[in-house]
Design a protein that fits this description.
Helices cover about 35% and strands about 40% of the residues. The chain is an alpha+beta fold. The chain is elongated. The two termini are about 15 Å apart.
Length: about 100
């Protein structure tokens, strides 16, 4: 499955649009990560636990979006975007969305 954040795929022709596809996951902070992040805020630097959490969330949301596009018969997703939303204290949704298409 080809994913791109632009409207077309260079060298390919979009022959069919299947519409919007999306995938999401809601993740909560792990107490251990949260505790370490609090300590890291004091001295500064990257919050590696949260970085890993976001990488995992983006991958799972992407995988779910790709699965939805595959069910429709698409072989590519264009205009891919990611967004996050706070769901509750300590939990956030990662949403991946785009337009499922078939290219030749």
């Amino acid at each position: 499955m080809t994913l791109t954040n632009v409207e077309s795929i260079p060298g390919k022709t979009i022959v069919e649009h299947y519409g919007l596809v999306q995938g999401s996951t809601i993740r909560a902070k792990h107490f251990g990560r949260d505790f370490m992040a609090t300590l890291k805020n004091i001295v500064g630097g990257e919050l590696k636990g949260y970085t890993e959490l976001m990488v995992e969330a983006r991958q799972q949301a992407s995988d779910r979006m790709i699965a939805q596009a595959s069910e429709l018969g698409a072989n590519a997703i264009v205009n891919v975007r990611f967004t996050t939303t706070s769901v509750s204290q300590g939990a956030a949704e990662m949403l991946a969305y785009g337009t499922a298409v078939r290219c030749e």
